[in-house]
Every structure is written in structure tokens, then in C-alpha cells.
Amino acid sequence: MKRIFSYVLLVLMTFLVQNNFFAASNLIDTVPNLLLILVFSFGFLRGSTTGMLIGFACGLLSDVFFGSTIGFSALIYSVLGYGIGLMGRLYYTDFVNMPLLLCLLSDLAYHLGTFVFAFLLNGRHGFGSYLLNIALPELLYTGLMTLLLYPLLRRVDGWIEKWEFRKTKQYV
Predict the structure, then answer these.
(1) Sequence spans of domains, the chain
(2) The pTM of the whole model exceeds 0.90
(3) Residue 98: its pLDDT value, please?
(4) Are 15 and 58 in contact (CB under 8 A)?
(5) How many CB atoms lie within 10 A of CB 17?
(6) Mean pLDDT per 10-residue run, the chain (172 residues)?
(7) For residues 116 and 22, what is the distance between their CA atoms, to the nearest angstrom?
(8) Whether the Cβ atoms of residue 84 and residue 106 lie closer than 8 Å to each other
(9) Class of domain 2-24+32-167 (CATH, top level)
(10) Which is it for the CA torsion 82, 86, 89, 93, positive or negative?
């Protein structure tokens, strides 16, 4: 129960930071996908089920506030969280180079899914301009933020684990 509460709090805080702080920043014209970093990090560290559930929560929150179709982002984030959770079993999670590469690949997959479902099905076919003007700047900004946030989220996961284990140890 404490883990679920912690995940809900993390999802809400990440959503608020992404859509208030970074959206109001005039540094560059794009916003890093912090929700994807959160989904990726906990899917990579905790497994496919956790990644899928956090992905669904992040996507649903994003759809409710900004989407024209409810469930579109929830589907993409859930699939990415599940897939990254499967990758977390195969790769070592301590170093930041493999998580960075997998996060960049998942961000690229997110943009491909967004292009196919949101643009291509609506009759817009400018993939080159979408890639250069929207996807690539966000990909670079998200990669930079992954270098900063993944070690922090890894530490937060350890704190949640200790907090949960310490409290359950008293009852055993």
C-alpha cells in the first residue's frame, strides 16, 4: 500500500513539474518527457508489471488533461513500460549508459506511436518535419534529463524499498 501511495505521489509530482515548470520555461521550445523517464525508470528497476501500471497512470493523466482521445497515451506508455520492464531483467541497472540508450529508444518509440496514431491516421504525412521539429529536440532534452533523473529515481526506489521493508519488518 505504501509503495502504491509513493508511486501515485511520484506520478502526480512528475506530471506537475513537466507541465508547469518545464512548460513555462523559455529555455528552449520543447519540454522533456519526464513522464516517460518515470515510466522507463520504474519499469527498468521494478519490472514489467510496475512499468505497465505506472505507464497507464501517466498516460491516462496525460490523456485526461491534454489528449483529444482518452486512452491513446495510456496505451503507448503502458506498452513502453511493459517492454522496458522486460529489458530490465536482461541489463544491469547500476550504470547510466544502458538506461540512457533504452530511454532514448523508448522516447523514439513513443514518437513513432504518436506519429502513427495521431498524425498518419488523421491524414498528415510530414514525418520529416515531425521528426526534426518535434521528436528530435524532445529526444535530446529527454536524454539530458535522463542523465540527471535516473540516478535520483534509482535512489528514490531504494528509499521506497527501505521504507516498505522497515515498516513490514516490525509486524513479522
Answers:
(1) 2-24+32-167
(2) no
(3) 81
(4) yes
(5) 14
(6) 90 93 74 93 92 96 88 92 88 74 91 81 76 89 92 91 70 56
(7) 26
(8) yes
(9) mainly alpha
(10) negative
